Amino acid sequence: MIDSPLTDSLLLVNPATADNPKLSHIHQSLIYIVDHSEAGTIGVNLNRFYSKPLSELVGPNSRLPTVDPERLTVPHVIFGGPLAGEEFWVLQSAAHTPAVGLSNRALALGFSPDAFAAVSEQDGRAIVGAGSFGWGPGQLERELADGLWLPFPSHYELLTAIPFHDPPLFAIHLFLQLRFGQRPPQPHAA
């Protein structure tokens, strides 16, 4: 099976949409595309977080499986998008993840207790979130043609060379740590 060029890529919402009130819910979003095919697309926003850290969301009545926060890239739960907002997931290396959920060659999006248990093998390269973004067949292609999204390939050197500013800068750094296991180089002081 050949992956689509959009699988394992990033979408940044076009900054020119900032003044459109219909798009305020996606303003400053940076979406990681886990899977793109003729059947549609699924991705998660890496640029929004719940206000409480993971440790405060886990409890006896929580739907969130237990996971060691020390094994995560960030201690907060990511708000991945407006779809299935009560469904918790873990995004981690596909190499260490049981064959559950969605995956591409690099990362896997798992929903099962087995996927959360695999976080112990991730060495700090996993994130937990809830909710996602989804597009039906051809929908994302139309939005790209209309200029709503700016696509970026999942390429370390390219992503570290682009002068991103906050707020997507933090999400780019989070992605680089998760996907490549390394932080971007720090600029040298003049």
TrEMBL record:
PANTHER family given for it? Answer: UNCHARACTERIZED PROTEIN YQGE, UPF0301 PROTEIN YQGE
Gene Ontology terms: cellular component: cytosol
**What is the top-level taxon of the source organism?**
Bacteria
User: Per its UniProt record, what SUPFAM superfamilies does this chain match?
Assistant: VC0467-like (SSF143456)
InterPro entries xref list: AlgH-like
Write the protein's name.
Uncharacterized protein
Family the entry assigns: Belongs to the UPF0301 (AlgH) family.
Matching Pfam families, A to Z?
DUF179 (PF02622)
